[in-house]
């Protein structure tokens, strides 16, 4: 069995209050990477707005961290604009925008690409990020205090063959628009960066594996085992929600004050070198 835990890796780090007094929005913040990030930001002193379509889960998490929850379909620009205005009405400003909401699909051959499916992924994964960058930038420019915008991409944007064509397209485009926005917004003291995780065991990834492999009874531990064995240079270890949350915390914090236009890859080295090479160096 792999050592991964798809809910939490059990770490209990002392919060450093690196975001004390800052106001943050996390889209897709009800659970998974978004939920872990919202929690970590709160532990570090941020006031967090959780935006999601999972109302009950999101409301419960927001209550537990002293934040607020708002229903938000990121494919609708008006929803995202409302969330930004809500944050400003709540605390008078917006310092951090984590554009995290997204979906995956089980598309296969490019010769059978369903354009309706592609449109759905573009509307949520890509347009949702653009909506977030646009309206967060407006608020941050208006305040004159700069800010940090972080967007969720993926290892699939770096290495071909890790996900469907539609998903890969959207995640690659996120890196492109983030770097482009960083060029413009840097003049206003606003940093724009990406975080790109490799596969992390989750309910969403489990469903993708079940559909792709044709194994509806597949369990989350099996996904953990696959990633632990072949999805990281750190044998027996795969990424957790908290690993990504820590990366986002850094990009959101003042410690990353000179980091912009960057794609921070959280993949255990998977996209940097061959996992198969481990055997050459004496792994038993």
TrEMBL record:
GO terms for molecular function: oxidoreductase activity, acting on the CH-OH group of donors, NAD or NADP as acceptor. Keywords: Oxidoreductase. InterPro entries: NAD(P)-bd_dom_sf (IPR036291), SDR_fam (IPR002347). Pfam families: adh_short_C2 (PF13561). Belongs to the short-chain dehydrogenases/reductases (SDR) family. This is Uncharacterized protein.
């Amino acid at each position: 069995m792999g050592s991964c835990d798809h809910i939490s890796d059990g770490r209990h780090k002392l919060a450093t209050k690196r975001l004390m007094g800052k106001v943050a929005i996390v889209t897709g913040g009800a659970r998974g990477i978004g939920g872990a990030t919202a929690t970590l930001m709160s532990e570090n002193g941020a006031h967090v707005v959780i935006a999601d379509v999972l109302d009950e889960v999101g409301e419960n998490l927001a209550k537990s961290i002293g934040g607020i929850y708002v229903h938000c379909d990121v494919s609708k620009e008006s929803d995202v604009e409302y969330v930004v205005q809500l944050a400003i009405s709540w605390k008078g400003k917006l310092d951090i925008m984590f554009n995290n909401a997204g979906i995956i699909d089980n598309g296969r051959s490019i010769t059978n690409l369903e354009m309706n499916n592609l449109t759905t992924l573009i509307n949520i994964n890509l347009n949702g990020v653009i909506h977030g960058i646009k309206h967060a930038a407006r608020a941050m420019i208006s305040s004159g205090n700069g800010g940090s915008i972080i967007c969720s991409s993926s290892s699939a944007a770096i290495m071909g063959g890790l996900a469907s064509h539609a998903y890969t397209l959207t995640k690659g485009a996120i890196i492109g628009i983030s770097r482009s926005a960083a060029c413009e917004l840097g003049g206003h003291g606003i940093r724009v960066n990406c975080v790109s995780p490799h596969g992390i065991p989750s309910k969403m990834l489990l469903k993708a594996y079940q559909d792709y492999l044709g194994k509806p009874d597949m369990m989350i531990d099996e996904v953990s085992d696959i990633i632990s064995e072949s999805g990281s240079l750190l044998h027996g270890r795969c990424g957790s929600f908290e690993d990504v949350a820590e990366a986002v915390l850094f990009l959101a914090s003042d410690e990353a004050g000179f980091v912009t236009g960057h794609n921070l890859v959280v993949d255990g080295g998977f996209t940097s070198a061959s996992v198969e090479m481990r055997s050459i160096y004496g792994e038993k």
